[in-house]
């Protein structure tokens, strides 16, 4: 099996990107479909993405592809054409765009990896076939269903994602991983088998798998937001609809958050004042992900506690 990787250090790659200061789009896309020859598929994706100056992470498995990447803005049309022609299944693929441009610091390198799953669901039931999924709803339908008493919105993201932003009254399935959520959501939602259930996540990949799992477990009226939170916001902006999501959207790159509304619904871990600024503890043996305001970042030297601060 061939091995493709970066020969330049992360530090040098980061410096190169910052020096260029080239306006970039952050994109995400996924597609569940069967990939037979994983190695050759991975190699072709890497070679072409490298040629298009793409940075970010791409996961490939027998169940499909999942990508979070950044790309120079001027190359986007060419890249989109390439992707649509790369495989017949990818023709017309929905590509989620970031809300902002000039995201030069989102990713520093390109990584294309083969995984057992493109999203780690932890499902081991041999009878489960990822086939039937919930009904897609667009931004207009989302806004209508948010006001429906017979509809429950279920956030299929981790608790730290939910904390800084979510739809009004959306149900949190408390967890730190998607695997935990899928175990818990069936139990938590038993009371609502006769209600409409709308599931959502960042870009759609987790909630699509979750709706299939819900249907497998006997739930009938299951929906999911097309393109997830990112798709909803972009569509609402395009159609000039009210954006009802409150707070910020957690993203899995160096930016950590994208502001959607001006609402700050979370608080600093140390002073309890409003903040949505996620950081990792500066003490490397801790590296805890937590919310810290600007003042506390100075007082605690970007650490989560005085003990960690004394250790650096």
**Low-pLDDT runs:** none
Count the E strands: 15
Strand neighbour order, sheet with most strands:
4-1-3-2-5
User: Which term fits the overall shape?
Assistant: globular
Write down the domain tally: 3
Secondary-structure-based class equals alpha/beta
Largest sheet: 5 strands, mixed
CA gyration radius, whole angstroms: 20 Å
CATH class of the largest domain: Alpha Beta
What this model shows, in words?
The chain is α/β, with parallel strands linked by helices and about 300 residues long. The protein has three domains: about 10-115, Alpha-Beta Plaits; about 135-240, Oxidized Rhodanese, domain 1, CATH 3.40.250; about 265-310, no CATH class. The protein is built from ten helices and 15 strands. The protein has a five-stranded mixed sheet. The protein has a five-stranded parallel sheet with strand order 6-11-10-7-9. A three-stranded antiparallel sheet has the order 8-12-13. Belongs to the TrhO family. InterPro entries: Rhodanese-like_dom, Rhodanese-like_dom_sf, Rhodanese_C, TrhO, TRHO_N. This is tRNA uridine(34) hydroxylase. It is an enzyme of class 1 (oxidoreductase).
Q: What is the structure about, briefly put?
A:
This protein is of the alpha/beta class and 312 residues long. The protein has 3 domains: 10-114, 2-Layer Sandwich (Alpha-Beta Plaits), CATH 3.30.70; 135-238, Oxidized Rhodanese, domain 1, CATH 3.40.250.10; 267-311, no CATH class. Helix content is 30%, strand content 21%.
């Amino acid at each position: 099996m061939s091995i493709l990787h970066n020969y330049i250090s992360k530090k040098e790659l980061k410096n190169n990107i910052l020096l260029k200061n080239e306006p970039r789009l952050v994109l995400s896309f996924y597609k569940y479909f069967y990939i037979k020859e994983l190695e050759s598929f991975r190699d072709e994706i890497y070679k072409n993405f490298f040629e298009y100056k793409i940075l970010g992470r791409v996961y490939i498995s027998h169940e499909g592809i999942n990508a979070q990447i950044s790309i120079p803005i001027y190359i986007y049309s060419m890249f989109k054409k390439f992707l649509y022609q790369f495989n017949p299944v990818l023709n017309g693929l929905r590509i989620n765009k970031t809300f902002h441009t000039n995201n030069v610091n989102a990713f520093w390198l390109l990584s294309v990896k083969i995984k057992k799953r493109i999203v780690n669901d932890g499902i081991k039931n041999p009878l489960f076939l990822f086939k039937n999924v919930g009904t897609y709803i667009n931004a207009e339908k989302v806004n209508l269903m948010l006001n429906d008493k017979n509809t429950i919105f279920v956030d299929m993201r981790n608790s730290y994602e939910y904390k800084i932003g979510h739809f009004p009254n959306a149900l949190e399935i408390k967890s730190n991983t998607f695997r935990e959520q899928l175990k818990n959501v069936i139990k938590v939602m038993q009371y609502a088998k006769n209600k409409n259930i709308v599931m959502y996540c960042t870009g759609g990949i987790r909630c699509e798998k979750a709706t299939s799992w819900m249907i497998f477990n006997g739930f009938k009226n299951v929906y999911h937001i097309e393109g997830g939170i990112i798709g909803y916001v972009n569509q609402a902006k395009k159609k000039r609809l009210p954006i009802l999501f409150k707070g910020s959207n957690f993203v899995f790159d160096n930016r950590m958050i994208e502001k959607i509304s001006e609402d700050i619904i979370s608080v600093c871990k140390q002073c309890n004042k409003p903040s949505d600024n996620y950081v990792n503890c500066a003490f490397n043996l801790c590296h805890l992900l937590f919310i810290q305001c600007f003042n506390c970042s100075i007082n605690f030297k970007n650490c989560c506690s005085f003990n960690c601060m004394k250790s650096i």
